Amino acid sequence: MPNRWKPNVTVAAIIEQDGRFMLVEEETTDGLRLNNPAGHLDPGESPVDACAREVLEETAHDFAPTFLVGIYLNRFTRTRTGDDITYLRFAFTGTLGAHHAWRPLDDGIVRTVWLTPNELRATQERHRSPLVLQCIEDYLAGKRYALELVHTDASVLTHVAV
What is the per-residue pLDDT across 84-137, written as a single tens digit (0 to 9) for each? Predict the structure, then answer.
């Protein structure tokens, strides 16, 4: 089947402290947007490992995923190019660790911000996708699933595709 549909696999971290959620403010083709610390799954890594890596790259904080919040499918059309893209997102929550102030943030990441649920709801027009708020609403609803639901076969970790 030459035209097989292949959604982009991404991971996101839902990080809450004292009633506020950590987000990143990032430059996009549509301007400055808010997003959960998130990114693409790289070859040779599990979704859990990818989430920890993305949090470190985008926020300069260590992060240890402890629960899966949910798995989400989202379709998106790029404003500039008209590309039709589908994302499959694994959202995790966990423990925020040490901050490494010396680490540069990923290209495009301007800063981290901490917002309350009401502030998040009031800024939906600035969200990178509708999944930003959906993942947080699911977290607030108490959705937590064992990490064992996301199995990564050893073949993924030992073979990196070219």
Answer: 888 999 999 999 999 999 999 999 999 999 999 999 999 999 999 999 999 999
Instruction: Report how far residue 115's alpha carbon sits from residue 147's, in angstroms, rounded to the nearest whole number.
Output: 26
Residue 33 and residue 89: Cα distance in Å, rounded?
A: 18
Lowest mean pLDDT of 106-110, 142-146, 158-162, name the range: 158-162
Nearest residue to 150 via CA among 27, 84, 66: 66
Closest C-alpha to 16, from 117, 121, 126: 117
CATH topology assigned to domain 8-158: Nucleoside Triphosphate Pyrophosphohydrolase (3.90.79)
Rounding to the nearest 10 degrees, give the CA dihedral for residues 58, 61, 62, 64. Answer: -70
